[in-house]
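Lab channel / #folding
Pinned by the channel admin:
"Please post every new chain as: sequence first, then the structure tokens as a reply. Keep commentary short and put observations after the output so the thread stays searchable."

First post following the new format, from NK:
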Amino acid sequence: MKKFGKVSLVVLLVALLAFAGCSQGGNGGNGGNGGGEDNGEVPTARIVTGPPGLTVHTVGSTLSEYIKDSLVLTVEPGSTNGNTMAVNNKEAEFGISMTTAVVNGFNGKEFYADKGKMENIRVIATLWHHYILPVTTNKNLKHIDDLKGTKLTAGPPGGDSEPLVKKYLSYTGLTEDDYTIIPFGFQEGAEALKNRQIDLLFSGAPFPNPLQEDIGKTQGGRYINIGKEYAERLAKEYDGLYLVEFEEGAQGLELDKPYYTVSYRAVLITHVDVPEETVYKLTKGLYENFERLGDAVGNMRTFPIEELVTDVGGVPYHDGALKFYKEVGLVD
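Reply from TO:
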């Protein structure tokens, strides 16, 4: 009995020493936010989105809930251009921005001309479209050429709509002295339009769009005609845009056909240095919950799952995203 006790004590001491060694080894390596090697722990990361209530924020929040067992995301508000810079500067591991901001940021053009190239940006997925659709309740305003002396909003500060709106209006010969831009948020802008504080809501937004539907239902109005010539010119001159023919607007808003405008896409981005395994987990979570996201956020139903991978003006995809897309056959 005494001999058995001594052997048991030795075994116990060896086991304790081995456990202590494992514990010390587990604290080393590539831990911290953003992951590192997969050591069984759920990695954490930040994702910058948009103001609460907007599709961008809702998608980020909903996705974070769906994938929390494999990746814990802290969802933070942000803005289109701000998100691009935040991810590039490692202030957040992930962000949802727009193709216009990502392409021009990567190349150091337009808004980023004096800020340097955002060359650390990598694409994870392209998402829904945002359409530039000027809406008015004044049916005497029918064409973009008619906007001298008007008051308008081009969306919240830091968004990508305002520079696009200014370019559109410059094609008509107007200068910035010929109209007034008031920087309302989307909801505030819709209320200002209904209250006649502004003449039109001229911004990029997903479609179907509840604000446009509400204006059409309660006030009536129309989409101001942009014209194919102006739309084609803007799509050629401003990176990250797509020329589109818009076939049907919100009920109660008149739409002259054919109606041409431009769109840009929401795009999920990351930093080149975020570990491959962490990006892989986010990409896998997005893909596997694509239908659930569509049920929760209507704009995620407006494009097929295959369009998670589209060209974003030559901005590279992250290796972690490409690894997953190759597994499911979306890329070769």
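NK: The first strand starts at residue 44 and ends at 48.
TO: also worth noting, Residues 169 and 175 are 8 Å apart (CA to CA).
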